[in-house]
């Protein structure tokens, strides 16, 4: 029997991110991805033109239909949430599925700043989700926002570990801070509060950046953790997969908004659970 993952995120027709990557990746990892959309877009917002359908008014009805079917989930994986109302809906959804393992990607910003539609009020509401999660996957900017620390580009591993411990003190047992740049390497740091252990996994940074790699990373983590893979091994597998995708994609002259050619390597994920 496949385990079920409720994947809460937006869906973009063009630009490989959010549910567009979560569905095939979670499926490749032999879990049942159950999409719970927050918005439907013709293309992700990095493009100069896109349409946006806010799904907030349907989310409660969507959840009620699942309840009437008596559906339960092994994992809840929450990504982009576009409003305080959506955060409240997801918080209630998590509380009503109290046996599920909860993974929160606290999507709020990058490069030291909030994304355009985010602010301190929304950040404080995102913290409500972090408090009731088991695992969170912020990038360095989001880690600073969650802990009210000043963002800068010279964080050491020790300082980043302190950020992870501060986030864990809010509630989650496990924290992964992604995209830490140190000495030409890109590092993902995982902290396990229960064992008071951490892992820093480093790969060479090739100065290439593409949309959706964070969504791919957390989708892989979600699928692996759902199927009982080791926390540290999951970080290594997800990091290596992203590195391989970026290396391959960088051979082609494409718009970074298009995302990486992750489809080429899906067999690598499928083989993990054979």
TrEMBL record:
Signal peptide: none annotated. Pfam families: Phos_pyr_kin. GO terms for molecular function: ATP binding; pyridoxal kinase activity. This is pyridoxal kinase. Its EC number is 2.7.1.35. It comes from Intestinibacter bartlettii CAG:1329. It comes from the Bacteria. InterPro entries: PM/HMP-P_kinase-1, PyrdxlKinase, Ribokinase-like. GO terms for biological process: pyridoxal 5'-phosphate salvage. The lineage of its organism: Bacteria, Bacillati, Bacillota, Clostridia, Peptostreptococcales.
């Amino acid at each position: 029997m496949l385990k079920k993952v409720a994947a809460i995120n937006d869906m973009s027709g063009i630009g490989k991110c959010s549910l567009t990557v979560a569905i095939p990746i979670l499926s490749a990892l032999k879990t049942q991805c159950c999409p719970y959309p927050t918005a439907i877009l013709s293309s992700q917002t990095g493009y100069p033109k896109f349409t946006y359908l806010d799904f907030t008014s349907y989310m409660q009805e969507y959840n009620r239909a699942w309840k009437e079917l008596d559906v339960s989930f092994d994992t809840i994986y929450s990504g982009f949430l576009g409003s305080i109302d959506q955060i409240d809906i997801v918080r209630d959804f998590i509380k009503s599925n109290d046996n599920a393992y909860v993974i929160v990607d606290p999507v709020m910003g990058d490069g030291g700043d909030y994304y355009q539609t985010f602010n301190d009020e929304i950040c404080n509401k995102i913290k409500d989700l972090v408090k009731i999660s088991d695992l969170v996957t912020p990038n360095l900017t989001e880690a600073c926002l969650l802990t009210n620390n000043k963002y800068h580009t010279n964080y050491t591993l020790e300082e980043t570990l302190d950020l992870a411990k501060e986030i864990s003190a809010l509630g989650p047992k496990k924290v992964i801070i992604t995209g830490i740049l140190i000495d030409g390497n890109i590092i993902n740091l995982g902290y396990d509060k229960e064992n008071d252990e951490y892992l820093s996994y480093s790969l060479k940074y090739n100065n290439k950046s593409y949309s959706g790699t964070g969504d791919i990373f957390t989708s892989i983590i979600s699928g692996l953790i759902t199927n009982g893979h080791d926390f540290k091994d999951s970080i290594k597998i997800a990091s290596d997969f992203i590195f391989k995708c970026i290396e391959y994609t960088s051979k082609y002259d494409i718009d970074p908004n298009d995302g990486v050619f992750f489809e080429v390597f899906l067999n690598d994920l499928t083989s993990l659970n054979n």
